[in-house]
Design goal:
five-stranded parallel sheet; 231 residues; 10% strand; globular; alpha/beta; Rossmann fold
């Protein structure tokens, strides 16, 4: 069976990744490429829907790592502890979710992957890209997305949306996932700049969607990139 497609979404919290992943999944489910296509819906030989996952999280172990890493009470985590936790989460996600789905010929939509670690720990925590990329090679078998959709609206608007969202979540559910949003603006600027650096370095893989765009306009650009890939 042909390998499936691995598509990742990247960007700061508040960039609209979650909205765009859901919209893309719906678009893929409604896509008709003919009988037997592994991502089609509504035809006699249609296959399963895309697999949606996220990092950190997406597995039982990963969800526990996520709770630890994103909780504001984990303020004392050292940068290399964050790095190790992210790759522990990623290794489990690849083994349990991502690689099995790709081996079944399915499309995997993943909210964050190693680009996030390079941006947040490599850039934000100033550990550098080299250690992140080497750990990815060693721990993740250098698994690379077929396509990365990088959403980079203006830094200030992303942070404002993310902080409002976390405040609502804390008030409504008691769940605190605002640890990174509490970092100073210089940290987030380093993250944003590292994301752009990755996009410039890997234009064949990364589709950069930046600027203060509407949800529908971003979706159109996402769909255009994905349609080109799966065609």
């Amino acid at each position: 069976m042909p390998r499936g497609f691995f598509i990742t979404f990247e960007g700061l919290d508040g960039s609209g990744k979650s909205t765009q992943i859901r919209s893309l999944a719906e678009w893929l489910e409604n896509l008709h490429e003919g009988p037997g296509a592994p991502w089609t819906r509504g035809t006699k030989n249609s296959g399963p829907a895309p697999v949606l996952t996220r990092q950190p999280g997406g597995t039982a172990a990963g969800d526990r790592i996520r709770a630890l890493m994103l909780d504001s009470r984990s303020a004392g985590l050292a940068p290399k502890t964050e790095l190790a936790l992210m790759f522990a989460d990623r290794a489990q996600a690849i083994a349990e979710v991502i690689q099995p789905a790709l081996d079944q010929g399915r499309i995997v939509l993943c909210d964050r992957f190693t680009d996030s670690t390079e941006a947040y720990q490599g850039g934000g925590r100033e550990l550098g890209s080299e250690i992140v990329l080497e750990l990815h090679r060693l721990i993740c078998g250098d698994l690379q997305p077929d396509l990365t959709l990088m959403l980079l609206p203006p830094l200030e608007s992303s942070l404002a949306r993310a902080r409002r969202r976390n405040e609502r979540s804390l008030a409504q559910t008691g769940r605190d996932e605002g640890r990174f949003e509490r970092e100073h603006d210089e940290f987030h600027l380093r993250v944003w700049e590292k994301y752009r650096e990755i996009a410039v370095r890997e234009p064949a893989r990364v589709t950069l969607i930046e600027g203060d765009l509407g949800i529908d306009e971003v979706h159109d650009r996402v769909v255009a990139a994905v349609a080109k890939l799966v065609a």
